[in-house]
Design a protein that fits this description.
By secondary structure, the chain is of the alpha/beta class. The chain has 16 helices and 16 strands. The strands form three sheets. Strands 8-12-11-13-14-10-15-16 form an eight-stranded mixed sheet, sandwiched between helices. Bound molecules: adenosine-5'-triphosphate (ATP) and magnesium ion (MG). The site of magnesium ion has 3 residues, from helix 3.
């Protein structure tokens, strides 16, 4: 070989080397060893990471949830029995992503972001990983803007601020879903996007929620992520994370979002089923040890961002179902400790007709106070104290002993306030109406009205004011407060209206 040959070889080698681009995305592969109930065990994937998306035979998807010495445990996102032993598994190097963006609103999707409302495929330009770290302390701002639910008992005594996490907790059939749905309906025209995540519910229940949203024109700003009791545990498990990703996208683009997780008890149960199949050691109530981490990493993602991040917010309303009012069970105590307060609903109250059945004593909002509307705080500030005194007194009064005048007056006022706070489903109030109702209730203007008529009377009165004194109502709505003059007009009008209301009836 002469010199030129060497040079040729040399050049060829150099050009090969300089054109070589290494493939960093090495795909480790493995084989399915076991498959059952949506859970698979895979052998031979030493590089798999927790939460990573796996590709099974190029057809099915699975998420890594368990890393053991010789095998990897994963959950299958497609049909439970789709995957069988010996199938080839490849790692993908990233975590599950779902479509997000404005296009998701007005739609009903499954936990993987596929449309299930029959309105055709959803085309979005963005996707987002379902797991993400929560905004850090420095990224956050103080919760100081109210998020009105339109329910007086809540807005006055357990106020919720934008970016807050407020738990709705209670036994079955105590109106938990109704409160959350009413809160969504009340966001109409307020530039708040809403996400409703149904976890492990009956299909009929979810469809009635969707119908309600549609009927009240709330679906257009709401995205419904639906996993029913019929879906596999893995799908129920990822549903809230998908909803959270959809909400997060809006929050990071500077919008306010309200997200409802209905409910996290069923989520915990789905997670327990998966964990037991993965043969993780069961702990208290057979839940795995990381059940706290499961819900805290989900709820920590709700936040109020500071202005350098666009100032958006995500308010979370997780729902927990208790058994026989037991709020000290494992999952309820966990979620109570993660959230910034709870709205506790009681069967006894619900059955005795106090609806919404909010137990004032056990409900609290730890951060919403500073976000409360000025007028509501001013007018209803003493409400909480008053109601708890009333409840205490009324227990004694049941013994039938003779009561002095002051006690009787207090009982009567308490009973009327309780009546005034009653609200049917889908009858959310505007801020001005809430202030007016609180005003007349706290000022004892309802004294002359028979107790059992108070509830319907206040509703009729607010409607009357809307027609005859729209200016005053607008003024209160604009200011978020009731001034002296407006107060006097309301008082006078109430008397006039009461005369008319009861006269009409006696005719
Ligand atoms: P589940 O445990 O089944 O999820 P839930 O606690 O979510 O029940 P809802 O489904 O909201 O309860 O309400 C149960 C029933 O009570 C519904 O029929 C609803 O219409 C009724 N209800 C709820 N809130 C009120 C209210 N404020 N006034 C009158 N009826 C109400
Ligand atoms: Mg419900």
């Amino acid at each position: 070989m002469d010199k030129t040959d060497y040079k040729k070889i040399n050049d060829a080698l150099f050009s090969e080397i300089s054109n070589y681009t290494p493939d960093y995305s090495s795909h480790s592969t493995g084989r399915v060893l076991f498959s059952g109930d949506g859970v698979i065990k895979i052998g031979g994937m030493p590089d798999a990471k927790y939460g990573e998306l796996l590709d099974v035979e190029g057809k099915y998807r699975a998420i890594v949830l368990d890393l053991e010495e010789n095998e990897v445990g994963a959950i299958v996102l497609d049909a439970e029995d789709a995957v069988s032993a010996n199938m080839l598994v490849k790692s993908t190097g990233h975590i599950v992503e779902v479509p997000v963006g404005k296009e998701m609103f007005g739609r009903v999707v499954d936990p993987l972001g596929n449309a299930i409302d029959g309105l055709g495929e959803i085309h979005t330009s963005t996707v987002r990983a379902i797991e993400a770290s929560a905004p850090s302390i420095a990224d956050r701002a103080k919760v100081e803007e109210p998020l009105m639910t339109g329910i007086i008992a809540i807005d006055s005594m357990i106020p919720i601020g934008k970016g807050q996490r407020e738990l709705i907790i209670g036994d079955r059939q105590t109106g938990k879903t109704s409160i959350a749905v009413d809160a969504i309906l009340n966001q109409k025209g307020k530039d708040v996007y809403c996400v409703y995540v149904a976890i492990g519910q009956k299909t009929s229940t979810v469809s009635s929620v969707v119908h309600t949203l549609e009927r009240f024109g709330a679906l257009e700003y709401t995205s419904v992520v639906c996993s029913t009791a019929h879906d596999s545990a893995p799908l129920q498990y990822i549903a809230p994370f998908t909803g959270c990703a959809i909400a997060e996208e809006m929050m990071y683009s500077g919008h306010d979002v309200l997200i409802v997780y209905d409910d996290l008890s069923k989520h915990a149960i789905a997670y327990r089923a998966m964990s037991l199949l993965l043969k993780r050691p069961p702990g208290r109530e057979a839940f795995p040890g990381d059940i706290f981490y499961l819900h805290s990493r989900l709820l920590e993602r709700a936040a109020k961002l500071n202005d350098s991040f666009g100032g958006g917010s995500m308010t979370a309303l997780p729902i927990i179902e208790t058994l026989a009012g037991d709020i000290s069970a494992y999952v309820p105590t966990n979620v109570i400790s993660i959230t910034d307060g709870q709205i506790y609903l009681e069967s006894e109250l619900f059955n005795s007709g106090v609806r919404p059945a909010v137990n004032v004593g056990l409900s609290v909002s730890r951060v919403g106070g500073s976000a409360q509307v000025k007028g509501i705080r001013k007018v209803g500030g003493k409400l909480r104290l008053y109601l708890s005194q009333y409840r205490e007194l009324s227990v004694f009064a049941q013994f039938g002993s003779e009561l002095d005048g002051e006690t009787t007056a207090m009982l009567e006022k308490g009973a009327r306030i309780t009546e005034a706070l009653k609200q049917d489903v889908r009858s959310h109030y505007d801020t001005a109406h809430e202030i007016i109702v609180l005003y007349i209730a706290m000022k004892e203007l309802l004294k002359e009205i028979p107790t059992n008529r108070v509830s319907s009377f206040v509703k009729a009165f607010t409607e009357y004011l809307d027609i005859h004194h729209a200016d005053i109502v607008n003024e209160i709505e604009q200011n978020g407060d009731i001034g002296m003059e407006a107060g006097l007009v309301v008082e006078k009008e109430m008397r006039t209206f009461a005369d008319y209301y009861f006269k009409e009836e006696n005719r």
